[in-house]
């Protein structure tokens, strides 16, 4: 997107958390120029400080402000780009734009009927006028998967959200055999967990389609190993793993190091008969 009005496209990204000071997922921007993109810098608010999501006062509320996933959109129709960001908790914070690449330093939460709008965990917002009424609606995936649509029943200048509609059920992290011995990818029939959503008319038929990315773990028999043999060895290895985790984990540093070394050896032993691949797919769900 063109974030700061200089005529060059910029790249906006979130992050999990900064390393120094209090945990917070900063926003990074690679400003465009006639020679390409500049080095990434933290995006500051109009007060000159890095934009940081708000946080509740309860124990564990740090997850409100980490794992940021921003989307730039003129949400209130004032001609200035805003930033709406998802987070670890699954809620969505709105930094209002002030023009010229500047943003209000304090965000407000998107709400539904007085409660924070939420998808559970790991919200990743995408905005589009899905119902063709002139304002932006919100889409998101979640850590457990699925696709959720929050209709804007307000106006172009005053958004108001309706409770979410599930367009695709959350499959969960075990959808593609993460907890079962299933080889290959033939069993992958629907999007799995950690879904990300893009909405567009992919096939040019005048109807909006859903592009859904996911994350999945695939298993294959190692080279030269028969699949039946791999299944048997994996079952035996799983029992070893269960027994290992039954042992109390040491509290002293030397004991923890020895524990970690033993676990790494157990995990590496699996490579003799099994190949695991952490990957994902992009699914096309055509609009009707």
What's this model, at a glance?
The protein has 2 helices and 21 strands.
Characterization of this structure:
By secondary structure, this protein is α+β, with helices and mostly antiparallel strands. It is built from two helices and 21 strands. Strand 6 and strand 7 form a beta hairpin.
What is the topological layout?
Elements: E1 11-13, E2 28-30, E3 32-33, E4 36-37, E5 41-42, E6 69-73, E7 82-86, E8 93-95, E9 97-99, E10 102-103, E11 108-109, E12 111-112, E13 115-116, E14 126-128, E15 137-140, E16 147-150, E17 165-168, E18 193-200, E19 209-221, H1 227-246, H2 253-269, E20 274-279, E21 282-285
Portion of residues in beta strands equals: 25-35%
* Global outline: globular
Mean pLDDT: 93
Ends apart, CA distance between termini: 29 Å
| Helix percent band | 10-25%
Question: Keywords, please?
Answer:
288 residues; alpha+beta; 4-stranded antiparallel β-sheet; 2 helices; 13% helix; globular
């Amino acid at each position: 997107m063109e974030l700061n009005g200089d005529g060059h496209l910029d790249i906006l990204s979130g992050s999990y958390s900064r390393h120094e000071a209090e945990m917070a997922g900063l926003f990074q921007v690679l400003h465009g120029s006639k020679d390409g993109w500049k080095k990434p810098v933290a995006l500051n608010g109009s007060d000159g400080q890095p934009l940081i999501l708000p946080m509740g006062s309860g124990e564990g509320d740090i997850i409100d402000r980490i794992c940021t996933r921003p989307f730039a959109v003129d949400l209130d129709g004032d001609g200035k780009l805003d930033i709406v960001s998802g987070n670890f908790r699954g809620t969505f914070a709105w930094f209002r734009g002030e023009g010229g690449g500047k943003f209000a330093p304090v965000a407000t939460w998107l709400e539904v009927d007085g409660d924070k709008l939420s998808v559970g965990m790991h919200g990743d917002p995408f905005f589009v006028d899905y119902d063709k009424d002139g304002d932006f609606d919100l889409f998101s995936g979640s850590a457990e998967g699925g696709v959720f649509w929050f209709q804007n029943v307000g106006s172009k200048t005053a958004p108001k959200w309706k409770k979410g509609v599930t367009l695709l059920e959350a499959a969960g992290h075990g959808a593609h055999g993460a907890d079962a011995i299933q080889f290959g990818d033939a069993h992958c029939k629907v999007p799995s967990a950690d879904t990300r959503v893009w909405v567009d008319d992919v096939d040019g038929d005048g109807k909006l389609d859903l592009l859904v990315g996911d994350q999945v773990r695939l298993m294959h028999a190692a080279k030269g190993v028969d699949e039946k043999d791999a299944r048997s060895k994996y079952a035996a290895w799983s029992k070893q793993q269960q027994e290992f985790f039954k042992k109390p984990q040491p509290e002293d540093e030397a004991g923890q190091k020895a524990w970690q070394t033993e676990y790494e050896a157990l995990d590496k032993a699996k490579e003799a008969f099994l190949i695991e691949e952490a990957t994902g797919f992009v699914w096309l769900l055509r609009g009707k």
